[in-house]
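[User] Could I get a sequence and C-alpha cells?

[Assistant]
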Amino acid sequence: MHFELLVEEPSAEKVLENLLPRIITGEHSYRIITFQGKMDMLKHLPSRLKGYKRWINSETKIIVLIDRDRDDCYQLKKKLEQIAMKAELITKSSAERGHPFDVLNRIAIEELEAWFFGDPNAVHSAYPKVSSKFSQKAAYRNPDNISGGTWETLERILKSAGYFKTGIKKIEAAHEISRFMNPLVNRSKSFQVFWEGITSCINLSPLKKDKKL
C-alpha cells in the first residue's frame, strides 16, 4: 500500500515524519505533500485530487489532514468530501462499508497541537521543565476541547516553563514532541481516528502494534 498524505503546513509534516515510519514499513510506502496553510490547501486541493484520479490504483490511498480551527467540523468535512467527489474519487465516508475507497479525510480538532496535549508524557520528554502532570488540570483533560486555541495554550505552557520566551517555533516544537509520542496512549480523539484510519488501510490492528510505540 502507498499513501499520499496531504497536510496544510510544515509542522504537520514534521509530526508525520516521526510517526509514520513506525507503521508504514516494508512493502508499504508514503509521501507527504505540504501546503502553505489551510487556505492554500483548500485552494489547490481540487486540482491535486483531479491529478491523482489519472493515475492512482487500488494500492494507493490519499489521506487529507487539515485543522478544524474554528470552522464548523461538519461543514469542513462536507467541503472535503465534495472536493473529492468532483474529482471522481471515492472517500471512505461515501464508500459502502467494507468496500474500497481512494480518499480518507481527517480533521485535527481544533488544531494539530491538540495531539500533543493527548500525550503529556511526550511534551514532558521533549521539554523536561514542563511537568507531565499538567494534563491533570480540568482545562487540559479533553485535548480536543481546549478553549482559547491549542497552539496558544501550548505556547503559554512552554513559556511558563522557560522555553520559547520570544514565541514558540511551531516546526521545532512539533518535531521535538512528536519524537516521543506514543500513538497507543494518545487521548486526543481526532488523533485516534486519524491513526486508526491508517492502520485499517494496511490491515494492522492497533492492538497488535509494537508496544514500544
